[in-house]
Amino acid sequence: MSSSRLPGKVLKPLAGEPMLFHIYTRLLQCKHIDKVIVATSNDRSDDEIENFCIQKNFNLYRGSLNNVLSRYINLINQYDCKYYVRVTGDCPFIYPQFIDAQIQILKKHNADVLWFKNESSLLEGQGVFSSKSLKFISKLSNDDEDKEHVGSIYLANNPHCFKIVEMRLPSQLLNNDFRLTVDEEEDYEFAKHLYDHYKNKLPINFVDLISYLKGHKYLGNINGEIKHRSLNVDLFEKRKKWVHAKKIGCEKFKLY
Q1: How many Å apart are CA 97 and CA 253, to the nearest integer?
Q2: For the chain, what are the domain ranges?
Q3: Which fold has domain 9-252?
Q4: Intervals of the chain under pLDDT 50
Q5: What is the 8-class DSSP label of residue 223?
Q6: Which residues of 10-34 are buried (b: 16+ CB within 10 A; e: fewer)?
Q7: What's residue 185's pLDDT?
Q8: Would you state the pLDDT for residue 231?
Q9: How far apart are CA 72 and CA 68, in angstroms?
Q10: pTM surpassing 0.90?
Q11: Interior CA angle at 79 toward 142 and 77, to 5°?
Q12: Is 190 in contact with 148 (CB distance < 8 Å)?
């Protein structure tokens, strides 16, 4: 709730329900996820999130406000899971089949992380990783940014420490014309337009959404001027250099 760019965004309404509701229920569509947990902070500002989760009977965990990494480590240890899915609370259009595919690929190769030669803004905020990779990072990094961003900095800088599988995306997903993450008020207006359009067809079918956006490209103007944080841009540039890192496999993802 204490987001600096758009305070309270996770509970902003989309088609009559808070954004967090849509993220949680979309995750329930995944076939290879055992448990969905809202991992928020123990700061008083997030009491409202706890109240909402209790009302909806959603699984909830509360931990450190700034050390988000510790929230994940505590949950990984509590549930003894081999893999975890990190979904940020500002991505109300996550693609359940894409998450399932990531899980299956990592399990097939007993790998830690996936790499995409061509990343897409359509698929932000829904990554799958091995639990052992995060435990490794938590022991070796004391960087405050790693604590806030769940080990992303250490991971980006040290690909040689992890088992990487390349995942190739279909051309329909290689689209960076639209921002599906909600960082600013314009992003929220964009998400609100889409949820209003699909309010009688929820949960939104991701493939149908891509088709709709392709036929209504002007909608990208709503939040097209919003820029990613410099840290995210830096991480993207570092991951591009993983092209030279050793991969233990390569798999294709089909749109479905």
Answers
A1: 10
A2: 9-252
A3: Spore Coat Polysaccharide Biosynthesis Protein SpsA; Chain A (3.90.550)
A4: none
A5: T
A6: bbbebbebbbbbbbbebbeebeebe
A7: 96
A8: 86
A9: 7
A10: yes
A11: 25
A12: no
